């Protein structure tokens, strides 16, 4: 709760103290309708008739009728009477008001405006944090204990910044809150600091998984915390409590961030935290208890390992995959720095986990397999997409690492899809994920599950099989809470009622439960591709100018989504000749669009050209089957079953990607069915498609009739009347 601003008489306000309705909305952090409602409901004319002693909304003191201007002090005093709903009380028991929020926003606006006069957002932030650090450490009384560069920055700070920050400290009640608020202005100041800031939700999750590191606040046995990429300290300050604690080490190579982190620590009264420029300095860093208490002088210097090791380094999408110092190098460094029984928490780009092993393993793949084979990975948590507001094109995961695995957890890793969890539970996802990690399971199977690192057998589903280890690609299960037998009987009954002409055919569909002793196994599409049973057809990029209305049919995203009818777009053979890599499809190929779900379509004729991102899958044995060269029971899969099984819910859920959700075709799976079941399913699905096509033609005919009737009446050319005696 801050002190009220001096209220000026109307007509005597200077321009700096005037605010518009839009600025009131922004500074009070409410919607524009709220401000308009305040002004209308609490106008003098309205309160004059109703009374009740309520204070009217301030009158304009300038501007025009279309854009009135109000005295900021008058507005702040009026907003002081309005508590913020559901706000937590302050330490003194008072409830924050919109006036507090408005006044704070007004001060911050003035601070941000100084950036243009200083000419540098970094200079403004350094000056402001230097003032906070001096206030936090009592620099006016004990300057001899402070770093020289802090004294120099505080001495050279712009007087206007000093006044604004001191007012902010008084407003917020502490130098620590003021320092955190100034760093929160980095985005408004257009500072590059924001691009590397750990999002609050991720910092909260890491803090919870790290455990109560601040419980043991003193003594030589409290947990040692190492932050390998500290930035401006978001992960450190998210921990349970670091105030007055030793045994905390931050590594930050950037000089500016290192300085800001130190000043922020001083503002929080945290002087027992060491800051290094490189991780190698940890090996020569002298422990605080030796420096302050001079305990055990024969003990070697250095803090080479910790109970908790954190890292959220700055990454770019696809960066350094072929570099030995790639992103997973941070995870290896964290593992090497962990004490037995310790825990590491490292944020990595999800591509480091999803790239498959090629013929020549990349350094990224080698590091991934080293982490897994060393049993150093406790859990892989796929974070919600777009979790980093300034890295919208990248997806991230959190690796939970261990110094030593418990006997019952050796040889397995917990995969957690926090993206799916966040879509289901909303903002409570961090607490839910923590519970899942602690319990080792989730009520929804496709959200979490243990996977073996290695297992016997050439077809074992393990994390060292060279495929993606991203949770969304590995986790799949039956639809939860659904009895497929009952649901299918209900669907058959509804179809018979809706389509009485097909009642006999629908009734002849035999549906039975599969015996428990004949469980179905699944194989990844990638396995079928490697075995030569399937062939993947890539989509092509063709200039729009080469696509017309004659020639071979073109199948692109629009056709798969139903936005364009099949056959509307075509390409002439002479134009196709300019694309030597372009291939045409064969009869029985399956079109596949794996964006925002899975959509499939069977090519019943062949001779189509696929446009990226549409892909195709070809059953290699099907062409010989059509030619009569192989028997029916020798064909392991048919086109229509392949199409429907690929689009099943268990594959729809495997999407990943920050901007466009894509499903990895190779990570989809298919059930292994006997040839006779595949043939029966093919016959049923082909007939179902034929009946659906008939119904669609009927609907299209009715739609066209309704269109022509409405168009004729609208233009005044038709007069409609039903024949006598018609119903």
Give descriptors for this structure.
38% helix, Adenine-n6-DNA-methyltransferase TaqI, Chain A, domain 2, 727 residues, Rossmann fold, alpha/beta, 3 domains, N-methyltransferase activity, 23 strands, nine-stranded mixed sheet, globular, single chain, DNA_methylase_A-5, four-stranded antiparallel sheet
SSE topology sketch:
Blueprint: E1 18-20, H1 21-28, H2 32-41, H3 44-50, E2 62-63, E3 68-71, H4 72-79, H5 98-118, H6 121-136, H7 148-156, H8 159-172, H9 175-184, H10 200-210, E4 225-227, H11 234-238, E5 248-251, H12 255-267, E6 273-276, H13 288-292, E7 306-311, H14 328-337, E8 338-349, H15 351-354, H16 363-373, E9 377-382, E10 396-402, E11 412-417, H17 418-425, H18 429-439, E12 448-452, H19 471-474, H20 484-498, H21 503-507, E13 522-524, H22 525-530, E14 534-537, E15 552-555, H23 557-561, E16 570-571, H24 573-576, E17 590-593, E18 599-602, E19 608-610, E20 615-619, H25 622-626, H26 639-646, H27 649-652, E21 655-656, E22 662-663, E23 669-671, H28 675-714
Parallel strand pairs: 4-5, 4-7, 5-6, 7-8, 9-11, 15-19
Antiparallel strand pairs: 1-3, 2-3, 8-10, 9-10, 11-12, 13-23, 14-20, 15-16, 17-18, 17-20, 21-22
Helix pairs in contact: 1-2, 1-5, 4-5, 5-8, 6-7, 6-8, 6-9, 6-12, 8-9, 9-12, 10-18, 14-16, 17-18
CATH topology of the largest domain: Rossmann fold
Most strands sheet: 9 strands, mixed
What is the rounded distance between the termini?
A: 75 Å
Percent of sequence in beta strands? 5-15%
Based on secondary structure, the structural category is alpha/beta
Query: CATH class of the largest domain, please?
Result: Alpha Beta
| Helicity level | 25-40%
Shape label: globular
Cα-atom radius of gyration: 33 Å
Oligomer: single chain
> What is the arithmetic mean of pLDDT?
82
**Low-confidence stretches at least 5 residues in length (pLDDT < 50)?**
1-15, 213-220, 288-301
Instruction: Please list the strands of the largest sheet in the order they lie side by side.
Output: 6-5-4-7-8-10-9-11-12
Number of domains: 3
Can you say what the CATH homologous superfamily of the largest domain is? Answer: Vaccinia Virus protein VP39
């Amino acid at each position: 709760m801050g002190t009220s601003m001096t209220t000026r008489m109307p007509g005597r306000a200077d321009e700096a103290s005037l605010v518009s309705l839009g600025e009131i909305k922004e500074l009070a952090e409410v919607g524009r309708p709220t401000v308009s409602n305040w002004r209308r409901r609490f106008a003098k004319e309205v309160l004059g008739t109703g009374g009740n002693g309520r204070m009217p909304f301030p009158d304009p003191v300038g501007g025009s009728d279309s854009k009135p201007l109000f005295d900021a002090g008058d507005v702040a005093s009026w907003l002081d009477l309005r508590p913020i709903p559901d706000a937590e009380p302050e330490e003194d028991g008072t409830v924050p008001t919109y006036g507090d929020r408005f006044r704070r926003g007004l001060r911050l606006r003035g601070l941000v405006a100084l950036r243009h006069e200083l000419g540098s957002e970094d200079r403004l932030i350094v000056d402001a944090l230097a003032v906070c650090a001096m206030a936090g450490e009592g620099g006016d009384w004990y300057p001899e204990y402070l770093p020289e560069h802090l004294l120099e920055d505080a001495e050279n700070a712009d007087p206007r910044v000093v006044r604004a920050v001191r007012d902010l400290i008084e407003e917020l009640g502490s130098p620590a809150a003021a320092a955190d608020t100034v760093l929160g202005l980095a985005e408004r100041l257009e500072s590059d600091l924001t691009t590397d800031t750990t999002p609050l939700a991720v910092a909260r999750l890491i803090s919870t998984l790290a455990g109560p590191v601040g419980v043991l606040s003193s003594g030589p046995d409290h947990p040692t915390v190492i932050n390998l990429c500290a930035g401006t300290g978001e992960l450190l300050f998210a921990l349970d409590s670091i105030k007055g604690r030793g045994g905390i080490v931050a590594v930050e190579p950037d000089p500016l961030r290192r300085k800001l982190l130190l000043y922020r620590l001083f503002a929080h009264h945290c002087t027992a935290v060491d800051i290094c420029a490189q991780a190698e300095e940890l090996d020569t860093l002298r422990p605080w208890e030796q420096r302050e208490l001079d305990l055990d002088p024969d003990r070697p210097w250095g803090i080479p390992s910790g109970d908790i090791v954190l890292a959220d380094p700055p990454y770019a999408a696809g960066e350094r995959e072929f570099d030995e110092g790639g992103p997973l190098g941070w995870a290896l460094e964290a593992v090497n720095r962990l004490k037995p029984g310790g825990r590491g928490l490292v944020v990595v780009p999800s591509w480091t986990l999803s790239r498959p092993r090629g013929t020549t393993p990349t350094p990224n793949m080698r590091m991934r397999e080293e982490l897994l084979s060393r049993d150093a990975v406790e859990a892989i948590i796929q974070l919600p997409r777009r979790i980093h507001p300034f890295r919208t094109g990248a997806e991230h995961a959190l690796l939970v690492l261990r110094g030593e695995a418990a006997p019952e957890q050796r040889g397995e890793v917990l995969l957690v899809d926090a993206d799916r969890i966040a879509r289901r539970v909303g903002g409570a996802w961090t607490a839910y994920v923590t519970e899942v990690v602690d319990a080792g399971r989730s009520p929804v199977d496709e959200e979490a599950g243990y996977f073996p690192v290695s297992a016997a057998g050439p077809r074992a589903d393990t994390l060292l099989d060279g495929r993606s280890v991203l949770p969304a690609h590995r986790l799949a299960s039956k639809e939860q809470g659904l009895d497929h037998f009952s649901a299918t009987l209900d669907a058959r009954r509804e179809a018979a009622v809706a389509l009485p002409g097909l009642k006999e055919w629908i009734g002849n569909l035999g549906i039975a439960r599969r015996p428990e002793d004949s469980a179905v196994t699944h194989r990844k599409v990638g396995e079928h591709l490697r075995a030569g049973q399937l062939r993947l057809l890539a989509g092509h990029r063709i200039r729009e100018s080469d696509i017309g209305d004659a020639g071979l049919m073109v199948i692109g995203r629009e056709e798969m989504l139903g936005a364009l009818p099949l056959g509307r777009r075509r390409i002439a053979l002479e134009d196709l000749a300019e694309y030597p890599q372009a291939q045409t499809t064969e009869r029985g190929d399956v079109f596949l669009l794996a964006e925002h779900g899975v959509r499939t379509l069977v090519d019943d004729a062949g001779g189509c050209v696929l446009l990226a991102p549409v892909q195709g899958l070809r059953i290699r044995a099907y062409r010989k089957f059509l030619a009569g060269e192989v028997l029916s029971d020798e064909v392991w899969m048919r086109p229509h079953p392949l199409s429907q099984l690929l689009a099943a819910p268990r594959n729809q859920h495997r999407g990943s990607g920050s901007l466009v959700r894509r499903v990895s075709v190779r990570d989809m799976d298919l059930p292994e069915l006997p040839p006779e079941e595949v043939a029966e399913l093919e016959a049923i699905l082909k007939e179902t498609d034929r009946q659906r096509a008939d119904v669609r033609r009927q609907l299209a005919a009715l739609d066209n009739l309704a269109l022509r009737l409405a168009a004729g009446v609208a233009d005044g050319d038709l007069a409609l009347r039903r024949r006598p005696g018609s119903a």
